[in-house]
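Regression check, zinc ion case 316:
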Amino acid sequence: MGGVLTIGVDVGGTKTAAGVVDEGGRVLETRGLPTPSRDTAGTEAAIVALVSDLRERYVVEAVGIGAAGYIDAARSTVLFAPNLAWRDEPLQQAVEAGVGIPVVVENDANAAAWGEYRFGAGVGFDEQLMVTVGTGIGGGIVYGGALVRGGFGIAGEFGHVRVVPNGHVCGCGNHGCWEQYASGSALVRYVREVAATHSPQAAEILDVAGGDPEAISGLMITAAAEAGDRLCVEAFNEIGRWLGEGIADLASFFDPALVVVGGGVSEAGDLLLDPTREAFRRQLTGRGHRPELEIKRAALGNKAGMTGAADLARHR
Ligand SMILES: [Zn+2]
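Current build output:
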């Protein structure tokens, strides 16, 4: 069963995960290691170790790597990664030398978009966008049933569209990027800022964090919001509003039939997506006089990037 197997690798800012994936997008086994984000050789060694481990049990034809960074059009070099140490890093060459089978490199959100299009929430929609909401915001564009990479391989970096002139400073070096307002970082910032004022609103979440505003995490906020904590629900409403308004802007650019929302923060489900859909409808130009796109939650969870990267390696 399954035919040709490939390995998909998802290189995140803190964790690198690799999985064996079959032709139907099923993940047969996964392995993970921490990402040594300041050490490029160490990150490459972690990828090679994960692939070698999996190949002891599976016959694998190729490796696809989804990496959080700008990847060149040849799908080989990481040009720039805001949250990792890679600068003009020949990642494909380095990993191929270590594993001895073909390797392709793709932007992590592109890989996730492809995974959702082929096997997840996006099946059947040939014109769709993916927005991954995690620490930052990633984007992927599937049009005409193909991944759109742009002229230089770096299309779809929606997270770095400026939404607030002179706004919050961003990891990319600019100010006011969308990901500073509609991401997991924004969610945490919102609650920490209120908690730092020792407002009674923040009493419960502060308690969970042991009294230290800086110890409040995204997972704590999600759990509290699910239990009905008003401040934490309000934080989701706030980032959902930014997310929905941004998606309305994307609809003006791209007119997609579907936007898939993935990434770690999307696991909060309707806590995030209800305010997102509401803000989208309010902001959409010409609403009521145009077909409305669907906003769906990703179906593959944290395996979207791995699954997509493995499929891109299969069809390299
Ligand atoms: Zn930015």
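Comparison notes: The chain has a mean pLDDT of 94. The chain has two domains: 5-115+303-314, 125-298. No diff flagged against the previous build.
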